[in-house]
Amino acid sequence: MSTTTTIPSLAAGTWAIDAAHSTIGFSVRHLMVSKVRGRFTDFSGSLVVAEDGTASATAEIQVASLTTDNEQRDGHLKTADFFDAEQFPTASFKSTGFRVNGDQFVVVGDFTIRGVTKSVELEVEYLGTNPGMGHGPVAGFEAKTVVNRRDFGITIDMPLADGGAVVGDKITLTLEIEVGLQA
């Protein structure tokens, strides 16, 4: 898919993710009755807008930066049972196209976790731009997608004695991203 959709109000240039004002989070069913939520604290990326308004996006996440606010669980998630952070220290995203979906965008791209790359579609809401606080303009986006952990080689089964599983297969990824135009 080619990158043909333009994003209104964004000047041409490279817009870098401001990690201090952004969140990359996830949630997954636990015991099929509740959700465990987590986030990554170390990530970077950019949105590049060409002179004609077309855009491309990239991001890199340091997997070992994940936190669910539970040290024991976080340690387990970093093992080969789940993310295998030692062997695969980064997850990445590279857009392959943008398209309009009503008043929102869909960003299609290659998402890599544990060395496995799959195409994903992010539903993106453009929140607008702001002149910023003396360091140039900023723009905001919220995005969401659902992936199946098994598609990325996270196949641990933790069945419950009475049926069901400790961890669900569907992972919801949510991004709240602020980007700043680089000089």
Percent of residues in helices comes to under 10%
- Strand fraction band? over 45%
Structural class: mainly beta
What does the largest sheet look like? 8 strands, antiparallel, barrel
Whole-angstrom Rg? 17 Å
* Count of discrete structural domains: 1
The CA-CA distance between the termini, in Å, is: 30 Å
H/E series, N to C?
A: EEEEEEHEEEEE
Taking all residues together, what is the mean pLDDT?
90
Total strands: the figure is 11
| Shape category | elongated
Order of strands in the sheet with most strands: 1-4-5-7-8-9-10-11
Uncertain stretches:
none
- The CATH superfamily name is Lipid/polyisoprenoid-binding, YceI-like
CATH architecture: Beta Barrel
Count of helical regions: 1
The CATH topology turns out to be Lipocalin
* Assigned CATH class: Mainly Beta
Describe this structure in words.
The chain has 183 residues and is mainly β. It has one domain: Lipocalin (Beta Barrel), CATH 2.40.128.110. Helix content is 4%, strand content 55%. The protein has one helix and eleven strands, in the order ββββββαβββββ. Strands 1-4-5-7-8-9-10-11 form an eight-stranded antiparallel barrel. It is elongated.
